[in-house]
Design brief:
Layout: H1 3-15, H2 18-25, H3 47-59, H4 63-77, H5 79-87, H6 99-125, H7 130-143, H8 153-180, H9 184-214, H10 216-229, H11 249-258, H12 264-277, H13 288-308
């Protein structure tokens, strides 16, 4: 049986538990939070005072922290790309007739609230050149991204397991720093988004754990392949007006590292967490090739730590077109 046919068979087996997975990891739109729960009501007599407070607190935010928030918002806004990518994965019916496609649509619906909420907050902040931010968002959606997973569900679920934890860390750190600055509203916004990302990360990690029980050697090889390629963030093609693809992400990443929102050490910690969650060290039901992959993965955090210790983050701040001067 061909490799992708086996993948499809495993996905269809896991789909039998989809009702359980949907209820465990997703929430009803009728009870879940919505952007309107956090933003000032324009019909409220105190609306202008609330907006003034948002603007004053935004001006007080560290520049690197603020551009990290904007970059995170643009990343969240590029959801059409992520949904169309996942709908093409083997085992997911892109016509929407199986449990996996229901998962993708419902996951997308939850994620969609993040960009909506952050976009409106940034508009109210008065500190953002919204047109420049919107240009970057349109570019990111138009350019797509290349995460080197193909249509393989194993590789795609390794990626989403990793990436959801990374976005949780980023939003959670922004929330924590905003709380310290006295910006309780933005802290609450980012904290709630981070909680969503953590829940979604647990879901994708659960999917991988279940695949390990059904097809351990191939799942191990897929995990190794993704880590050899390196997990790239969804915004790796980030650019500004007139800029080339991938000419901005390094500046965004540097800003996030300078304010300790997301660093190379966080990347390593996420890897360690997945190694633990998927019980990689204890896997013995493997082919000889998969055993070598397991050993490579277990040694990888130490190797990456040595590399990270030699990386210097530029101190100079890049002037993003997104921020009004």
């Amino acid at each position: 049986m061909k490799l992708l046919e086996i993948r499809k068979e495993v996905m269809l087996t896991l789909e039998k538990s989809m009702d359980e997975l949907l209820s465990k990891y997703l929430k009803s739109p009728d009870t879940n939070w919505q952007p309107a729960d956090f933003l000032p009501d324009a019909s409220d007599p105190g609306f202008h005072d609330q907006v003034k407070e948002i603007q004053e607190l935004s001006r007080e935010m560290n520049y690197d922290l603020f551009v990290t928030l904007i970059g995170d918002t643009i990343t969240e806004e590029a959801l059409p790309t992520y949904e169309s990518w996942l709908m093409s994965v083997v085992g997911i019916d892109n016509e929407g007739r199986n449990g996996w496609s229901q998962w993708i649509r419902s996951w997308t619906a939850e994620e969609n609230r993040h960009g909506d909420l952050l976009n409106k907050y940034l508009y109210l902040s008065g500190r953002v050149d919204m047109k420049e931010m919107e240009i970057s968002t349109q570019h990111l959606i138009s350019d797509g991204f290349d995460i080197q997973t193909g249509k393989d569900p194993y590789r795609n679920f390794v990626y989403t397991s990793f990436q959801e934890v990374a976005t949780n860390i980023s939003h959670r750190r922004v929330a924590s720093q905003c709380k310290q600055l006295g910006n309780d509203l933005l802290a609450k916004i980012c904290g709630n988004i981070a909680a969503d990302e953590a829940r979604h990360g647990r879901a994708y990690s659960d999917f991988v754990s279940r695949i390990f029980e059904l097809d351990p050697s191939e799942m191990m090889l897929a995990f190794q392949d993704m880590m050899k390629k390196k997990i790239v963030m969804p915004a790796h093609f980030l650019r500004e007006s007139g800029g080339a693809i991938n000419d901005l992400y390094s500046h965004f990443s540097d800003a996030a590292q300078r304010v300790n929102v997301y660093t190379t050490y966080d990347y390593i910690d996420i890897l360690k967490g997945l190694l633990n969650d998927w019980k990689i060290a204890d896997r013995t039901d493997l082919t000889s090739e998969a055993e070598k992959a397991r050993d490579f993965l277990m040694a990888l955090p130490s190797r990456l730590t040595r590399i990270s210790e030699r990386i210097a983050i530029p101190e100079a701040q890049y002037e993003f077109s997104w921020v009004k001067r």
